[in-house]
Write a structure and sequence with these properties.
Distance between the termini: 56 Å
CATH architecture of the largest domain: 3-Layer(aba) Sandwich
Strand content: 15-25%
Number of strands: 16
Shape: globular
CATH topology of the largest domain: Rossmann fold
Oligomer: single chain
Order of helices and strands: HHEEEHHEHEHHEHEHEEEEHEHEHEEHHE
Radius of gyration: 23 Å
Length: about 425
């Protein structure tokens, strides 16, 4: 084809594209189609509490505090992209070492054919000691990380917002705020920033986020706005809870899910509860999800930090992946993920928030409670059991109470063991 004809064809297609975009922008709700959102359309995301967008770049770092009347830039002068990256790498390395130690302990529990009882006992003892040492390193790392996050990020933002002391009363009456981290900070537990040992020892005012405000996360301001809208699919959804219970996935450490199962069986009559246990396959879960307003997973989770879309929940026959979730539209009110690493994304596209928790949130679940890393089974069971005792009753769930209840549970766990943040720090709430 002659060059002139190619140019003419491209110009014609460009004009056609512009015409089509103009037609779309005339439709209701599409006036800003393919355009950056206007600030005034995003400010309502902060109607129920401020949103702190923590921006990290090689040039400068700021906390963009979004309130209904505008945005305030809080310079984070001690935060740098290089140190944030180093902290995130150290965080991931320590967690991966602890997970490897747990897997080695599982292998040690399977004796070899020619093992003597003494050799088996010695191997188990060594494996238990290695796990304990790995958890100590994780706790040391987390305590240092929490102090660093307070100094470089949380304290300047708390001061700007006027959150300077512990509010009186139950956390349901406390101020709320939402964290929207970027870059390597998307991997870190910003909601636990602070000096927790000193706070438990009576420091006043406490230098912790946990003792000043109820925290939630949002991937974007638009996602938070969308979660506050009532979808027609949610209105039409059946008031049923789906319980996916897989305590003994092949090749995984057995889980004790009995407490979570018992509290949900007690709160929901049979006509409002579907249980997938022996039949908890990938296909069965995908079929059941759109038919239930609420879902709880008690199982193992996993994440591929290089390809986070392959991470997901380990069911009987396969993994229910993030890609599986994002293929559908599962509008609902609540998703509880009593599973490991369901709120951690990948290392290559940090700003994309590719996590199972975010995937469920984007596809329509307004509230998602999940964990950032491999968690202690007993602690996870305690967290979710206490959560459901407070928000589930008479065949219904009240997800709007979840943030304050989760906050209260985590503070109690923190007060019990401030030096063991690996147990209480990973649990997060995403949503309104």
């Amino acid at each position: 084809m002659p060059v002139g004809n190619v140019v003419d064809r491209r110009m014609s297609l460009a004009r056609e594209w512009d015409d089509l975009v103009a037609q779309v922008r005339k439709l209701d709700g599409f006036t800003d189609f393919l355009m950056p959102p206007k600030l005034e359309t995003l400010l309502p995301a902060a109607d129920r509490g401020p949103v702190a967008i923590v921006n990290v770049s090689r040039w400068r770092c700021d906390g963009l505090v979004v309130r209904p009347d505008g945005v305030t830039a809080v310079p984070l002068e001690e935060l740098t992209l290089a140190e944030a990256t180093d902290r995130a790498n150290g965080y991931l390395g320590a967690l991966q070492e602890a997970e490897a130690a747990e897997l080695q302990r599982l292998e040690a529990q399977s004796p070899l054919p020619d093992d003597s009882p003494r050799r088996v006992a010695r191997r188990l003892l060594d494996a238990d000691e290695a796990v304990g040492q790995a958890h100590e390193r994780v706790d040391d790392m987390l305590l240092a990380l929490q102090r660093w996050m307070w100094r470089t990020i949380a304290e300047p933002i708390m001061d700007e917002l006027g959150f300077t002391d512990t509010p009186a009363g139950d956390p349901s009456t406390w101020p709320r705020m939402w964290w929207c981290p970027t870059g390597p900070l998307t991997l870190l537990p910003l909601h636990t920033a602070g000096h927790h040992v000193a706070a438990v020892d009576g420091e006043s005012p406490p230098r912790t986020v946990l003792d000043r405000v109820v925290s939630s996360y949002t991937p974007t301001l638009r996602a938070l706005l969308e979660a506050r809208r009532t979808h027609d699919d949610v209105v039409r959804a059946v008031d049923r809870l789906l319980l996916v219970d897989v305590p003994d996935a092949p090749g995984q450490v057995p889980l004790d899910t009995s407490a979570e199962r018992a509290v949900l069986l007690d709160a929901f009559p049979k006509d409002r509860l579907t249980v997938l246990d022996d039949q908890a396959t990938r296909a069965a879960a995908r079929t059941a999800l759109p038919e239930h307003r609420w879902v709880h997973f008690s199982c193992h989770g996993d994440q591929d930090l290089k390809d986070p879309s392959r991470g997901g929940l380990l069911l009987r026959d396969a993994t229910l992946t993030i890609a599986d979730i994002t293929e559908g539209r599962f509008h609902g009110d609540f998703a509880g993920l009593s599973a490991c690493k369901t709120a951690v994304g990948g290392v290559d596209l940090l700003d994309e928030a590719i996590t199972l928790a975010a995937a469920l949130h984007y596809t329509g679940y307004r509230h998602v409670v999940a964990a950032l890393w491999s968690v202690d089974n007993r602690t996870s069971s305690e967290v979710f059991t206490d959560l459901y005792r407070a928000i589930a009753a008479d065949g219904r769930l009240d997800p709007d109470r979840a943030p304050a209840v989760l906050h209260r549970v985590l503070r109690r766990l923190r007060d019990r063991h401030p030096n063991w943040p690996h147990r209480w720090a990973p649990f997060t709430h995403t949503g309104p």
